[in-house]
Amino acid sequence: MSSFFETVYKGSLTLLTDFYQLTMAYGYWKSGISERESVFHLYFRKNPFNGGYTLNSGLELVIDYLNQFKFSEDDLCYLSSIKDADGKELFEKEFIEYLKDMSFTCNLDAIQEGTIVFPYEPLLRISGPLIQCQLLETPLLNIINFHSLISTKAARVVSVAGTSQVLEFGLRRAQGVDGGLSASRAAFIGGCSATSNTLAGKIFNIPVRGTHSHSWVMAFDNEVESFYAFARAMPNNVIFLVDTYNSLEGVKKAIEVGNWLKTQGKKLGGIRLDSGDLAYLSIEARKMLDKSGFPEAVIVASNDLDENVIASLKEQGAQVAVWGVGTQLVTAFDQPALGAVYKISAIKSSTGHWEHRIKLSEQSMKISTPGILQVRRFSNKNLFEADMIFDTLSSDKIKSSLIIDPEDFTRFCEIPKNCESEDLLVPIYREGKLIYKPPTLNEIRERSFTQLRKLHASIRRLMNPHHYPAGLEKKLHDYKLNLIYKFKKKDQHEKRATDLNASM
Ligand SMILES: Nc1ncnc2c1ncn2[C@@H]1O[C@H](COP(=O)(O)OP(=O)(O)OP(=O)(O)O)[C@@H](O)[C@H]1O
Ligand SMILES: O=P(O)(O)OC[C@H]1O[C@H](OP(=O)(O)OP(=O)(O)O)[C@H](O)[C@@H]1O
Ligand SMILES: O=C(O)c1cccnc1
User: Residue ranges of the Nicotinate/nicotinamide phosphoribosyltransferase domain (predicted)?
Assistant: First the structure.
């Protein structure tokens, strides 16, 4: 693949970050800790769409982003021009010089694209100079949040479609240019067969497909004339949109032109239904096509489809071989963000020792997990059994087989015996050097299919899925709990001391 960011955005994307990352970067530099080694994790807290799983994607774009990570002259010029409240330059010249020399020197470990993942599992683990890890928070979240969300949505749609194909038709209603391009790639990873987005086809090598629109039909004096014209222009790609005036009348005209195509040694590819009762119309259209000698002509359906409508249509016996899915898929209509976060979890002290870091919250789901984390997946007879999140700082050799839900410690489970295991975070960069060969998009898509097959059907189902056991290894859980107690106790102590002082 040609570099996505180079192709679409010609300049540097290093400033594609929240401004506070730059003010913090400046602060770290002024405090002399910008090069302090630190560890950050990117993870989400809840599977999207009330589903039982998430399909991870976006790593190749992360790599693409990191490969171009460098402040350009233009970027530095812009930063130099930013003034503070007194009208003075916000960033000192020496800091700008420091940024000029900065290049990506971190280690990155990541869960591969097309892998099924669960809440609280680090999808990315980045370690290196504090300032770099901090600046990268926003772009990494931007890429992974959207990509994984759309891949998951696509996987849900594709799973209900079963043996029928899903085409991604979303570009016209996607969230801007990049929203459209990224969605096409993510949707392909999630199992869509092709996209209508031609630029995505070119950049990512995704198959492109298309029928025709209502305006084609309306540009001619009548429907049948428009069908003849289309068949003459493109005899090997004939799928007629039949609902411009009356769907079943449209099918009759498609059959008429199909008969003419036969005389030319060509085939009617199919028809597309885009309004009305898609179950009834597809069943009727199928009967008409079969009776007229076109059993191979496919019925494409579109019109604001999502996984729930498709599931209902299938239940009603809809005779649809290809689903065209746009708006609902590329905008993740029912949940517009995955909500992944990026938190620091360890930092090296001035004496060179790793220190754990934890973010506290009244909400247990918002308490971060300290350490340098890894995820171990246990499988049995080709079925995923459980995932264990553990701290490589303290528990590289895992002893306990107990995992505890990060949100609710009353929920725990024992990893079944005799499971195979695999560590999900794999090395991507070492000291800024890319050491990972990204798979092709087709390989990633295949991985998604294989992974989904290894997920029990009860976890895959759309409604009220089962909870997959993914939790903290006991030692890590205990350590986290101790840290929380320690902080809370200290907090209470300090509060009591302040209250005492106030009452004196
Ligand atoms: N048999 C069906 N069961 C459930 N949902 C359906 C069925 N047929 C169509 N739908 C879905 O119902 C929604 C609305 O369909 P409707 O027939 O109202 O189309 P429409 O949008 O009014 O048509 P038009 O595109 O002409 O405006 C769409 O999301 C469509 O996919
Ligand atoms: O419905 P989606 O899942 O987004 O799929 C893409 C839609 O885009 C086209 O519609 P068009 O822009 O012509 O609008 P209309 O058919 O709703 O009038 C096409 O006919 C589909 O209905
Ligand atoms: O090719 C199609 O049928 C198509 C493409 C984009 C949006 N709706 C339909």
Answer: 166-348
Distance 402 CA to ligand 1 centre (A): 49
Q: Ligand 2 centroid vs 170 CA: distance in angstroms?
A: 9
Helix 441-453 / helix 137-161 crossing angle, nearest 10 deg: 60
Q: Cα separation of 187 and 271, whole Å?
A: 24
Q: Residue 221 contacts by C-beta under 8 Å, 6 or more apart in sequence? A: none
Ligand nearest to the CA of 314: 1
Q: Whose CA is nearest to atom 11 of ligand 1?
A: 309
- In CATH terms, is domain 151-330 a member of 3.30.365.10? no
Q: Provide the CB-side half-sphere exposure for 408 (13 A, CA).
A: 5
Q: Is 482 in the pocket of ligand 1 (CB under 6 A)?
A: no
What residue ranges in 66-131 does DSSP mark as E strands? 107-111, 115-117, 124-129
Section 323-348 average pLDDT: 97
Residues with CB under 6 A from ligand 2: 169, 172-173, 213-214, 274, 302-305, 324-328
Ligand nearest to the CA of 275: 1
Instruction: Check pLDDT > 80 for residue 2.
Output: no
Is residue 358 classed as helix, strand or coil in its secondary structure? coil
Radius of gyration of the chain measured on its C-alpha atoms? 27
Interface confidence (ipTM) of the complex: 0.96
Instruction: Report pLDDT for 348.
Output: 96
Q: Which of these, 164, 168, 163, lies nearest to 151 by C-alpha position? A: 168
> To which H or E segment does residue 240 belong?
strand 239-241
Structure-block tokens of residue 132: 């770099």
Look up the pTM and report it.
0.96
Is there a contact between 9 and 61 (Cβ–Cβ < 8 Å)? no
pLDDT in tens, 210-253: 999 999 999 999 999 999 999 999 999 999 999 999 999 999 99
Q: Which CATH number fits domain 4-149+338-381+424-469: 3.40.50.300, 3.90.79.10, 3.20.140.10, 1.10.10.10?
A: 3.20.140.10
If you search the block for the tokens 């069908």, which residue do you land on? 227
What integer best gives the mean pLDDT of the chain? 95
The binding-site residues of ligand 3, defined as CB within 6 angstroms of any ligand atom, are 169, 196, 210-211, 272, 302, 324, 326
What is the domain partition of the chain in residue ranges?
4-149+338-381+424-469, 151-330
Which pLDDT score is estimated for 331? 98
Please check whether the two domains, 4-149+338-381+424-469 and 151-330, share a CATH topology: no
Give the pLDDT confidence of 362-384 residue by residue, as tens digits. Answer: 888 888 999 999 999 999 989 99
Please give the pLDDT value at position 66.
97
Count CB atoms within 10 A of the CB of residue 37: 17
**pLDDT for 281-301, tens place per residue?**
999 999 999 999 999 999 999
Ligand located closest to 277 CA: 1
**Ligand 1 lined by 316 (C-beta under 6 Å):** yes
